[in-house]
Amino acid sequence: MRSTVAAKALMAVTGLILILFLLMHMFGNLKLLASNEDFNRYAGFLRTILNPILPGDSFLWIFRIFMLLAIVLHIWSAIRVNKQRNIGTGGAGRYSVKKNLSPENTYAARTMYWGGWIIFLFLVLHLLQFTISPDLLNNPPTDAAGRAGMVLTAFSHWWFVLIYLIAIIAVCMHVSHGFWSAFATLGVNVSGTARAVLRVCSWIVAIVILVGFMTPPFLILFGVIS
């Protein structure tokens, strides 16, 4: 684990795991487009996966621990790689992808490290709002509204939608470069065609995440979903 190559591989694998989670989370959020009841049923389903093999919401807690581990390892590996790159030791220069093979000169690439910390801070706020302290906005939903009511309450505030938009844009910039970089680190960019396909796919994933995550908040804000 002292190897920069191992740290970059770990960052790539955990990054892809987090992107997959984002797409799953986005799918769940889009249940609001059907109805509040569908969203509440989906939220309830997450707490009963593998029942009765695993009692209660045991699977959900196992999944949360797994995702927390992925986040910690992703941050740790990113700090290690960035440190090695800055001090010029540990072989970071030798194993980095050449600029003519990757979009390393884009704004997203140059802000990956600090963009990651912005995303982390938003993640803390997000967990406080929807998991740890649902009454953070001093306007908790009624029991009848369920989890959908919690989401509707949060995104009825324009400033919260704005914060969410800024955070999702940061996420998409991170993903647009991280998706490409992860596969490049794992050796998939074996040709010019492969690199071009990866680049297009990275932008498609980023755009899907942006549209998918921001559609429910905007529809709630403008009263289409209530």
Spatial separation of the terminal alpha carbons: 50 Å
The CATH topology annotation reads as 3 helical TM bundles of succinate and fumarate reductases
The biggest beta sheet, please?
Answer: none
Contiguous uncertain segments of 5+ residues? 89-102
What top-tier CATH class fits best? Mainly Alpha
Give the ordered list of helices and strands: HHHHHHHHH
Rg over alpha carbons: 19 Å
Structural class given helices, strands, pairing?
Answer: mainly alpha
What would you say this structure looks like, in words?
This protein has 226 residues and is mostly helical. Helix content is 72%, strand content 0%. Keywords: Membrane, Transmembrane, Transmembrane helix. This is Succinate dehydrogenase cytochrome b subunit. InterPro entries: Cytochrome_b-558, SQR/QFR_C/D.
